[in-house]
Request: fold
Amino acid sequence: MKDNPVIFIKELSEQDRPFMLNHFLGLSASDRRLRFGAVLPDEAITRYVNGIDFSRDTVFGVYESTYNLVGVGHLAFLDPVALPALDGSRSDRIAEFGVSVSAPMRRKNVGTKLFDRATLHCRNNHVDTLYIHCLASNKPMLCIAEKAGMKIHKDHGEVDGYLHLPSLDPDSLRKESAEERVASLDYALNGRMRDIVRWLRKLGLSEKAVPSSNRSSDSV
Ligand SMILES: CC(C)(COP(=O)(O)OP(=O)(O)OC[C@H]1O[C@@H](n2cnc3c(N)ncnc32)[C@H](O)[C@@H]1OP(=O)(O)O)[C@@H](O)C(=O)NCCC(=O)NCCS
Reply:
């Protein structure tokens, strides 16, 4: 059995933009192709990050520390007419999910957890279909999609995946709200710990003075 770290997923906002940019600029050329469908240069990535409209879309992140985002999931709410039909039926509300995880953090369930959080958020916001688009060679993304039970449409080396979602219920609302609260608390505690370490350094005391159990280093 894999020994995965505890993962906290936080909804991102304007103040996270610089950390999102660092995350995306850290992706290799092949990862950029898998994530964006093309090897985007740094300037295009910067435009993409600066162009994210937090009032319309929802972005989730997994922080390893206060400064380091190791996973980002972007949920963009779409016009269903813009999408290829799967089975003739049309959805009322559809959202596209794009995700990336920093290479050292892969295969630790971060991508799966971000996907699960996106499905929960869609349900709670009356979105009935989650959509992904990726290359047919993208094994980890297909694995996430298949585990979730997505309907997969392969064409010319590309994949469209659709997941029909149940309506919200009290459990889905409670679960998302609890996840967000725990993640925000973890993030705030990490920041607080960083302030304490900085303060100890100023006093000439080493970081070792802080008990390791208080550094929340085993959570990401
Ligand atoms: C796709 C991506 C987000 C997956 O993130 P991740 O955190 O490594 O995913 P997980 O750890 O949750 O793994 C998901 C599943 O894929 C499997 N998997 C991961 N890497 C794999 C690989 N290289 N080959 C085959 N299966 C793989 C895992 O075993 C897991 O399956 P399991 O739960 O049955 O064990 C990550 O690989 C990535 O950022 N890739 C570049 C960008 C990209 O491709 N984005 C998707 C298109 S939008």
Summary: Strands lie at 10-11, 58-63, 69-78, 94-101, 129-135, 151-155, 158-164. The chain has six helices and seven strands. The first strand starts at residue 10 and ends at 11.
